[in-house]
């Protein structure tokens, strides 16, 4: 069996502490190369490489495109760039976001699986939602190993739990235990039996972790939250995700969350437009009454009340009021005084 010398680690919320503990536990003569993706804001500045460099004895450096991979070095993804492995080179590239992230854990893991196969050890740490699960599945299919931080040790357990529920995991442990296990793996040719999910339910497994059934189907009516393009569903074993023609990719849960954000944004936009129209119709109604045009003023009053009702309904939805509570009795805004009927 080939040596395990490519270690790819993915984390999100709560990941800095877990990464720091792992790095602190790696010895100076660690023979593997370590690659780290922590979800970061696109426009932010990351100090993760400096933090990890201080926490351990191995050098931690920000990834630069074209760097030659060296043993005993930690390569850290930089904001707004995917970290990838291509043969013996580091790739740091822009490209479509995955689950709204760039860098993305899945992008790193899948590139490692393609490039290094059974030499790869994938590690999923603390984080929200399910990024990393699909990439860990790809590593297993390529003959690599899968490690997950124990959910009880993770500050945010969603990413570890998702991996446990969908991938045959080889080792589960705390961040400090993972560091020791990495050292053992890098110096040996361990054969491991996948461990069971420590949760209440045994996860559904693909019929074979070495067979990938790929299919692409149009998902009618689903559009990409990033660019508006048509999404297609791609399946790999028991996992599925959605990809548009330019490459933006979403898991089912992330797509659901992204569309929820779009719905809320649309509602706030609708509320703004309705509030503006309510103000405009109110002004026009007063102007019409001042000119003695009561018929137009009455029509504008009806429209104003209709707009006010719609705005109140949307505001109630957005602010989470009791949906069974009656709408407030609509009254004319201050200044909307009935003029004497000149008709």
Structural overview:
With 343 residues, the protein is α/β, with parallel strands linked by helices. The protein is elongated. The chain contains eight helices and 13 strands. The chain has three domains: 6-186, 3-Layer(aba) Sandwich (Rossmann fold); 215-247, no CATH class; 264-343. Residues 196-219 and 323-343 have low confidence and may be disordered. The strands form three sheets. It has a seven-stranded parallel sheet, with helices on both faces. Strands 10-11-12-13 form a four-stranded antiparallel sheet. It has a two-stranded antiparallel sheet with strand order 5-6. α3 runs parallel beside α4 and α7 (252-290) packs antiparallel against α8.
């Amino acid at each position: 069996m080939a040596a395990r010398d490519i270690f790819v680690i993915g984390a999100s919320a709560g990941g800095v502490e877990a990464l720091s503990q792992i790095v602190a536990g790696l010895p100076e003569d660690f023979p593997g190369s370590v690659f780290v993706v922590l979800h970061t804001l696109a426009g932010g500045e990351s100090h993760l490489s400096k933090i990890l460099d201080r926490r351990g004895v191995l050098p931690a450096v920000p990834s630069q495109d074209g760097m030659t991979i060296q043993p005993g070095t930690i390569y850290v993804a930089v904001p707004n760039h995917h970290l990838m492995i291509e043969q013996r080179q580091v790739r740091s590239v822009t490209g479509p976001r995955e689950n709204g992230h760039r860098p993305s854990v899945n992008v790193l893991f899948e590139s490692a699986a393609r490039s290094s196969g059974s030499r790869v050890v994938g590690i999923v740490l603390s984080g929200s939602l399910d990024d990393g699960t699909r990439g860990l599945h790809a590593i297993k299919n390529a003959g690599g190993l899968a490690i997950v931080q124990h959910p009880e040790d993770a500050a945010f357990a969603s990413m570890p739990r998702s991996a446990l529920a969908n991938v045959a995991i080889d080792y589960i442990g705390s961040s400090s235990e993972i560091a020791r296990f990495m050292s053992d793996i890098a110096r040996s040719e361990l054969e491991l039996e996948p461990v069971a999910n420590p949760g209440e339910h045994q996860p559904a497994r693909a019929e074979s972790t070495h067979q990938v059934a790929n299919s692409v189907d149009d998902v009618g009516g689903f559009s990409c939250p990033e660019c508006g393009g048509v999404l297609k569903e791609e399946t790999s074993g028991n996992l599925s995700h959605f990809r548009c023609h330019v490459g933006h990719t979403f898991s089912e849960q992330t797509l659901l969350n992204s569309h929820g954000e779009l719905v809320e944004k649309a509602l706030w936009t609708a509320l703004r437009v309705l509030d503006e129209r309510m103000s405009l119709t109110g002004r026009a109604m007063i102007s019409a009454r001042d000119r003695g045009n009561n018929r137009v003023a009455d029509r504008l009053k009806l429209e104003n009340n209709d707009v006010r009702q719609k705005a109140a309904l949307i505001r109630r939805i957005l602010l989470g009021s009791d949906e069974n509570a009656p709408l407030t009795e609509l009254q004319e805004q201050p200044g909307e005084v009935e003029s004497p009927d000149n008709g």
